[in-house]
Amino acid sequence: MKTFSVKNYIKNMIKYNPKWIYLMRCIEKDGNVSYKIGYTKNDPIKRTEQLQTGNKYEVELIHKFWSDYSTKLESILHKSFKQYKDNTDKLHHKDNKGGKEWFDLPQNIVDDFISICEVYEKNFKFLVEKNTYLQDKYISKK
Asked: What 8-state DSSP symbol labels residue 82?
């Protein structure tokens, strides 16, 4: 029988997945600006070039942040900014599903993007390394 490990339980919830988190800007011909939040294992500049290929709008890398918990960080950023969701298809995908990562972010969020990422990253690390809540609640009482 396996023993319950709080640290492993938390690690499974917040998976170690080191990749770049990026914030890209897309400027349409009418001046409308949208931002893409995503992650990539490759250089974010190369990812920008990939998105630019075949796109009639200008795509520009604004910020990049190295995260040990990239998939969780991207997910929490998407949830945090859901009120700014832009569901239009900036990249003109045939299936019209390109709007999942695009946001109409206010300038203060764009300016603070790295700081926001740093706060979440520190919280994830704390949960993985130092969290004793589950241990105190379930294991110590047995």
From this structure: G
Instruction: Specify the range with the lowest mean pLDDT, choosing from 59-63, 76-80, 136-140.
Output: 136-140
Reading the block at residue 66, the tokens are 């190295």
The pTM of this model reads: 0.78
Type and span of the H or E element at 24: strand 19-27
Rounded to 5 degrees, φ, ψ at 24 are: -115, 155
| One-letter identity of residue 40 | T
Angle at 10 between CA 101 and CA 7, to 5 degrees: 150
Tokens at 29, concatenated: 């011909």
Q: What is the pLDDT of residues 65-75, one digit of tens each?
A: 999 999 999 99
Cβ atoms 63, 22 nearer than 8 A? yes
Q: By C-alpha distance, which of 69, 49, 67 is closest to 59?
A: 49
